[in-house]
Every structure is written in structure tokens, then in C-alpha cells.
Amino acid sequence: MYKGKGKKADVWVSVVIYTLIGITAIGLILVALQPRINEARDGITIKQTIEAMHNFDSALRSTLIAPGNKRVLELKLGEGEMQIDSENDMIVWSMKSSRKYSEPGFEIREGNIISLTEVGNPWKVTLKLKYDGLADLTYNGQQQIRILQKAGKSYSLSIENLGSVPGQVPAVDINQRA
Questions:
Q1: For a Cys staple, 155 with which of 75, 94, 109, 150, CB 3.0–4.6 Å?
Q2: Beta carbons of 133 and 169 less than 8 angstroms apart
């Protein structure tokens, strides 16, 4: 009778040992792949942000056609932060990234977007849209710097051409809608 119980116990001990070996192997694989997963995720985030910034740029430039033009834009920030810098007439998005997006230290133009990767661990990726000489940006009617953080829901932004004085660039106001 004792021999039968011992065989059942041996089977359960084997099952537990094989289960632990399997879980350990899966854990080691995940630890080894985590940096690549983070790098791929950050690459996707950067590409999505470039797309969003192209949309922002397109909306802003379409308001420049005539005074009174207004566009509403939904902007989703999954990572990083976006700075509306109306004092320097530019939009800047930055993020700490596991992925080196471009050659560190060199600005690269992609259409109207200027990208820069700075050396670090993690890397710092910055995307800029500059409007100096094209539009005089304001945020809620004021020259200020507004920082939009990553959020669970989209930001609803209104972009409006307020017109210009002859010989000057148009005033464009960016408002965050409720």
C-alpha cells in the first residue's frame, strides 16, 4: 500500500518541478525580451506622435488661408509631453525613450517637423514645429507656455486665425476646449 502512495507523490512532485521550470523559463525569456519590447513600443509611440504633429501642422496651416478660419483638432498624448510655446511660436513634444530615433545630436527635418535625439539612458527624443515668421501663436489669447501631459482621453484643441495687422504675420490662437 505504501508503494502506491509513493508513486502518486512522485508524480505530483514531478508536476510541480516541471511547472516551476516552465514558469522560470518563461520569466527568463520575458526579462531578456523586455528591452526590445520597450524599444518597439517607444518606436510606435514616436511614429504616432509624428502623425499627430503632421495633423496639428496641417490644421494650423489651413487656418492661415484667411482671418476667422477655425479648426478643431483631437490630440491624443499616450507618452511624453507637448509644449505649446507661444512665446517662441513653436510646438514641442518630448519623451524619454528606450529607442534611439535618429542620429544623436543632429536635427533632422521630416516635412515641417524637426526631430532631435539626445544622448542619455534613456534617450530623449524631441519633435518641433516652428512657426516664427509664419504665425504669431497665442494660447488662450496670451503669450505663454502651456504643457499638455499624457492623458487617458484626447485633448480637444481649437486653432483660430485672428487676423493680422498689415506687414505682420497672422495671429493664431490655440484654445483647449472643454
A1: 75
A2: yes
Query: What is the per-residue pLDDT for 130?
Result: 96
Rounded distance between C-alpha atoms, residue 99 and residue 51, angstroms: 18
Classify residue 144 by its DSSP letter.
Answer: -
Q: Which residues pair with 90 in a beta bridge?
A: 85, 130
H/E run at residue 109: strand 108-110
pTM: 0.80
Decide: 101 and 123 in contact? Cβ < 8 Å. Answer: yes
Which stretch of DSSP H or E encloses residue 151? Answer: none
Residue 126, number of CB atoms within 10 A of its CB: 17
Cell of 155: 485633448
| DSSP H helical ranges for the chain | 2-63
Q: Which amino acid is at 121?
A: N
Q: Are 130 and 74 in contact (CB under 8 A)?
A: no
Cell (9 digits) for 58: 496641417
pLDDT at 44 over 50: yes
- Residue 152: phi, psi to the nearest 5? -70, -25
Count, residues in the chain:
178
Domain ranges of the chain: 2-177
Asked if residues 148 and 53 have their Cβ atoms less than 8 Å apart, the reply is no
